[in-house]
Amino acid sequence: MKPTLAGLARDGLRTALAAAGVPEKQLRMRVEQISSWIYAHGATSFDTMTDVSKQLRARLQEQWTLERPQIVTEQISADGTRKWLLRLPRRGHEAQAPEIETVYIPELNRGTLCVSSQVGCTLTCSFCHTGTQKLVRNLETSEIVGQILLARDRIGDWPGAVPVQDRGMLPASEKKITNIVLMGMGEPLYNFDNVRDAMEVAADGDGLAFSKRRITLSTSGVVPQIVRWGEETGTMLAISLHATRDELRDTLVPINRKYPIAALLEACRNYPGLSNARRITFEYVMLKGENDSVADARALVRLLAGIPAKINLIPFNAWPGSQYECSEPEVIGKFADIVNAAGYVSPVRTPRGRDILAACGQLKSASVNVRASQRAPATSA
Fold this sequence. Notes:
Elements: H1 10-19, H2 24-39, H3 54-63, E1 70-76, E2 82-87, E3 99-106, E4 111-114, E5 118-119, E6 137-138, H4 141-155, E7 179-182, H5 192-203, E8 215-219, H6 223-233, E9 236-240, H7 246-252, H8 261-269, E10 280-286, H9 294-303, E11 309-315, H10 329-341
Parallel strand pairs: 4-7, 7-8, 8-9, 9-10, 10-11
Antiparallel strand pairs: 1-2, 2-3, 3-4, 5-6
Helix pairs in contact: 1-2, 4-5, 5-6, 6-8, 9-10
């Protein structure tokens, strides 16, 4: 199968165009043209690139495509949330084409796209459905960006496109996808380089043009990479915290055994650009009888003292086979009151897409990591 240009950063486009025979003195101009067609106009065919010569378009057509990930299923929640199961091209000796899930959450004046960074996950967080799926592989840069392109295609979020009106609401904003959150399948900091390069494409002002303040990476706590992420990307940061004691977090978020809470919070305090205007979001899933007591709320306040922070309280979203239950509404309300009284913005997140297993912690695909001895030889398409 031919690789896709859709999803490559400028350096990748430059390399591809050079391989297609574009002279050195023309490379900068051609990169600008083709990048604009792909990321500002949403081109899905080289034929639409009217300011690119027919000869170059033909050469690109021979070697490359502009394909996005393939939609296997699309589900639309009663609240308008959309979940796509996407199939990616097979790589190497993969026995089957891997699949990931991507979620779009529309609100009145904004739309958030929840993007995956891995097929499966290594972290086995006990409250998370994705954690029950073994890691298959990291996503390539083009596969991460491809989720954004696919979503914009599907909801009509390109200049001149007609937004879809089949079910549910779309934001009143001109752009229907205003925010990118790396909160889908996988731990993005375990795929650092590809995720960084993908967010470079997302933040390119002449292309997809997302503000870095509208891009948020969520990590379970890969401490050595947190400050580096801030230095190299400048996006917003979210921490999947969920507990105030190491012994509980060791169970909920097992990476805590390697990077305990004290080390995690020290990395947060050193996050580049941290200020009251650029706060870290701490995500805290509310689990009945586990982490939802008044004592837990007070401990959370003490723990985050001195860190410019927002605290998202997330009612637990059940999934098949889960061992946990969601805290009662009055318990969540009391917890929120304590955190708010301490001066933290502490919204209780309204669950979205529960009816299609699209809510926080519910994503999972059917892809499996097949042992080398079980793999069938790859066949050409």
